[in-house]
Amino acid sequence: MKLNGDCIIKIEETENRFEASEEQVSDTERVNMRSNKKREIIERCVEKIFLINACVAIFCVIAITFYIFYKGLDPFYTSQSENSYSIIKFLTGIRWNPAGHEFGIFHMIIGSILSTAGAIIIGVPIGLLTAVFIAEIAPKPIKKIVTPAVELLAGIPSVLYGMFGLGVIVPIIRQISPLQAGQSMLAAVSVLMIMILPTVVAISENAIKSVPHSYKEGAYALGASKIQTIFKVIIPAAKSGIIAGIVLGIGRAIGETMAVMMVAGNVVGGLPDSLWSPVRPLTVNIAIDMMYAPKGLHKNLLFSTGVVLFVFILIINLVLNRITSKAGEKQ
Amino acid sequence: MSRKMKDKIVYGIIGLAALFTVGILLYIIGFIVSNGWKMIDWNFLTRQWDTETRYVQLPVLNEGTDGFNKLGFKIGKTIYQKDTDKVETTCITDIRNKKIKATLMTENRKTYELVPTDRKYTIKKGFYIKKIDGVYVHELPLEEVEQVINAIETDKVTLTVVRPGGGIVDTLTTTLVIIGLTLIIASPIGILSAIYLTEYAKKGVFVRIIRFATESLSGIPSIIYGLFGFIFFVELLKFKTSILSGSLTLTIILLPIIIRQTEESLKTVPQSYREGSFGLGATKLQTIRKIILPSAIPGIIVAVILSIGRIIGESAALLFTAGTTAHLFTGFLNSGATMTVNAYMITREMNNLEGACAFGIIILVVILMLNILSKLISKKLRKQ
Question: Which of B4, B14, B284, B335 to probe by mutation at the A interface, max A CB count within 10 Å?
């Protein structure tokens, strides 16, 4: 009993101490409450600041789209006759002659599409095989040379590609061309082909690397050789990634300006009839004429050229989105 | 054909493709270096690109001392490239007081007479002398030039001096200023949006929209950015063709790069760090500032390095936002060409591939260094 009593006393004592400390806590809590509120406000403000910054990207996309379309579509619906131009004449004309009030861009659309297509046809196989080499075949020391080389290739500015094209590719073409002119669609195709290589290589390599190891093992177990495994199993399995790489390559090729401007010849009119004939892609038209075009119809039609280019890029982006979201579903 | 043979042929083709990729890179580098290295010398590194001709007036001393002439400098002959020929010209080889502050002259529009202005113009060593009091001394032999100087009897003389160009200083400073300004604007926006995307945003429509926006931005070709920069910054906001307009245009181009890289590095910070910090009673902001950002810094540095590379390489977006003529930096609202834009201009307008390749070498060296630097940092990051 005596022991019990001791216990009770002790418990009472501790309870007393508890009460005392509770009073102290409530004191500090009051202070805490105040600073907590302040803190909460700061936290909320900061979150809003973060949010605003995140919205800058959205604002930019909307502003770019709006202004390019606003300026670019202006010549087709404006009521001022000196600033208006028929959209059909614009899209189907094959002569760009601002002095003679002729603004056709059909030959440029064809020029852009053909030089991009050429670059893809030559560049994709080379890029894909290089990716296969890096991901599957190359021994480690060689891989250590090829991978940084591809990365450096991606970092070289387009002006330097243009200088290379002008100094090396154009003179070679001048010698073999029946037209005796080096600046041609072939030159544009060659330069673009080199420029899309790093994009195609990097993305295909990633796609190939992400193919599950078991696929390869299964193929080997069935008696397939390494080459058969690569071409019959791995590349089909990495298809969507590789296609994404190709689409990105198309985007890069069709939007390329500076390098193409230096080698393509930039003729004012006429559809290209062979690889030897000079072309004037859409991007080049914008870059060349923006430098001197006076305010008014001529300048606005350059924005219209930008709209056509923009539509191409939008289509490419949509296709890319489709591919990547499909690939995501599969996984 | 046996399977072995077929395989061997395919191996060969794959090897050739890889060889082509590496070979073309070496060819490009070799082409630029072999064409440009002759142009890179002390003059290239210390001079501005544009050649500047000015009329100046300076006082004539009674007589020369210590081998310096009446005008206070020594003259000699130097050779410079005039279009395709090499031409000998008279130049200032030494100045008694290091430099001469002369009075700048302008031409009166009506009478075509030279009148002094209140502005001063500094003449330095290496300047060419074209005319002395209206007499061409450009290509005269040295003795005759001395005679012309000794024959001066007035107490002031008008010279036509030429500051030789062909260097990198002005375009390099413009490039550096644009890099600095763009990063100051772009990196806070990019980093803060990346933090919002990884730390605050809940998965939903809004995040998908932001992601779609950044992805679309990275797909837009730079010439379209140039067009937008021209309407929005140059015309609408009236920043004119200037370094500011160029930097703002570049900011938009860089946003997706910075956002993506920063996001990647924020994602590598282990979830347990956040939980630990919250468990200790830290608020979200404290966690971000004290725990998450410090561990994500190497990734952010890589993002900045990549951005610098992109700025140096960019040209199409700068053509009509920042301008195409090389000037020394004088203000954010003045135009100026970066090294890359200048390299394009001198290939295209002056057909001077060698001069452009000299710029190419500098650009390549910088890009190579940035590549190596970002590699080293990300390697360190992976080790952690």
Answer: B14
